[in-house]
Amino acid sequence: MPPVNSHPMPSRMCFPCYLLWSARCRRFPLRKSITRWFIRHYDVDMSEALEPDSNAYPDFNSFFTRALRPEVRPIAQEAGHICFPADGATSQLGDIQGEQIYGVGG
């Protein structure tokens, strides 16, 4: 008799669901390890965070949406400046002419 798969979906479909669940789960055993890996891998400067201790965040989602110290990202007040509501980098700049398309996404 062949082994019975206990998962109703293929594992490649379950893993993303598991990651989404674990991002908000406070009892996820690897939460702190994943957060520390993310900080190292993406070179996150925790000194910019209002709470710099990564262990203080109850889940990965709280860490990912952490508050920053107000002086770290000042909002430009000068006329003619553009403010973006998130960290990022400008990859395209210029006039749009005709049917030119710029890809925007994260």
What's the topology here?
Layout: H1 11-24, H2 31-41, H3 60-64
Please give a quick description of this structure.
By secondary structure, this protein is mostly helical. The protein is built from 3 helices and no strands.
What does this structure look like?
- The protein has helices at 11-24, 31-41, 60-64.
- With 106 residues, it is mostly helical.
- It has a domain at 31-72.
Helix content, binned percent: 25-40%
- The 3D shape can be described as elongated
- Number of DSSP strand runs: 0
Straight-line distance between termini? 47 Å
Structural class computed from helices and strand pairing? mainly alpha
Mean pLDDT: 74
Order of helices and strands: HHH
**Main beta sheet strand tally, sense and closure:** none
Low-confidence stretches: 1-13
Number of helices: 3
State Rg: 20 Å
Q: What portion of the residues fall into strands of 2 or more residues? A: under 5%
